[in-house]
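Hi R.,

Here's the input for the alpha-D-glucopyranose complex you asked about:
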Amino acid sequence: MKQWYDNAIIYQVYPRSFQDSNNDGLGDLEGLLQRLDYIKKLGVNAIWINPVFTSPQVDNGYDVSNYFNIDPHFGSMDTMNALIKRAHELGMHIILDFVLNHTSDQHPWFQDALKSPKSLFRDYYIWEHTKDGQVPNNWGSFFGGSVWAQHPTEKNTYYFHLFDQHMPDLNWANPEVRQAMIEVAKYWVEKGVDGLRLDAFIHIAKANLRQDFPSAEKGAVIAEPMYANLPNVVTYLQEFINELRKINPDLFILGEGASAGPELAALYTRSNRGNALCDGIVSFRNLPKERLAQQDPLAMKLNLPAKEKLDLAQLPESIVHWQTSLAQTTQPTLYFSNHDMPRMATAYADSEYFERSLKTLATMQYLQKGVPIIYYGEELGLKNVELERFTAFQDQTVTALKSQLSGREQTEVLKYLSQTHKTPARQPMPWDDSANQGFSEHEPWLRTSSKQVTVAAEEDDPDSLLNFYRQLLHLKQQDLFANGEFRLLTAPTGLLVYERYLAGKSALVVTNLTSDSMSYTNDDWTNADITYTVGQVTLDDKQWHLAPWSSIVLKQDQLPWL
Ligand code: GLC
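And here is the predicted structure with alpha-D-glucopyranose in place:
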């Protein structure tokens, strides 16, 4: 049976950065509500909103202290209700970011659990005891240091936190926790949200805690096999999703499987005796990447993440792998970035052919079979913002770097991190060229990008990236591009070519992802109609010539091989 999300085109909104309605420098739900028409006009039909539940905001809302209410920074439950209602009136769906692996340490469950080993909520979290003041094992947290933090008063008692120490992991092995989280999610599904993005769900099962992860390194080490993708993840997930589907069979579940490649994504979307799991997976492994040959020596010395670019030699195989692995269960998700990654325009654009390269990349990516997820501002060509202070990254490991560096090195590292770190990709949306770019009348929580693109400027320019995205996403809504079969064609490295076909109609997409001119011949397509071109494309005796970063989309009312 067809579901609404088979044709989903998702827009991801980081709510603290989209639109501030009460001029406190932080974006909010009322601001988002005011901008729904803009989102609708883009051609999307679903909005994924990063977490807005009550939270001390240690990790911008991923540390939830009350799942049944909206954080006052973002507004009230009334505004959330109005947002859901208005989005539905506009024919759009709301997908909430749902944090289920951990809570805030301020959550009443954890506060109660801290009080005594006899607390009814003690077993909602994960505890270990040692005798000698050592942490229970060497497993490392994704946010640096050990996964273990000491109980404030009970000696030799530790709780487990995979992320920040103010975000203790829930103990999903406890059936009461599983039931409690089902109740929380039910509340939102009953309220009428259309989907949930399950944050970090691949970590809800843990291995036996009384073992070190084998490593030559001293101290805490990242130990994925101990806390990622363990067999019980599927068991817990299935129970959770089944209960929610009883309330809304059309509920869309987008799972965040950070380390998932195509096989794991297939596992998490595979239906088992009618019990479906996720409907889509987002991961860090969606695109093949290679390290840039020229690496910054200081960044390497400090062990900062390497700068990367698209691995063009691996790209066709990677696309086919994702497409085929998910063909039986769902479809791939198509995106370049999100709030945890550098922005597309920073990571992948060619500075010499900036706008054209972004148009061609979007063509290559979003006309494939799959669900596009557009990260707010991407449609404008927004780049990561340059942050000029170490504390602005809001990341303890970055703050700690400052004291190790000379003044000149500090400037260099800030510049480097502005391109690779997640925080500079979360800047306020630039609506116009007023003081804070129309985002707020107050100084925004994070710097706005100076001298950058704005919605107002692009609105009036028919060739702008914004207007290109609108056309592209409207094309994507057509049945052929939403549901047609996908077939990758062989082409020289750097040219990505594929066909879509459905009910006797077909399309060819040819994209030159390099700064060289490239040619392409395909006799099946010489009489087809041109839907659009990016850059310069010419046809000369059955051969298409594509200037650097150019692309062409062709359509015909027949199947290419007939
Ligand atoms: C996910 C989120 C990330 C957050 C983490 C902890 O990976 O995308 O932003 O910090 O989970 O909740």
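One thing worth noting: Residues 59, 62, 99, 163, 199-200, 256, 258, 339-340 surround alpha-D-glucopyranose (CB under 6 Å).

Cheers,
M.
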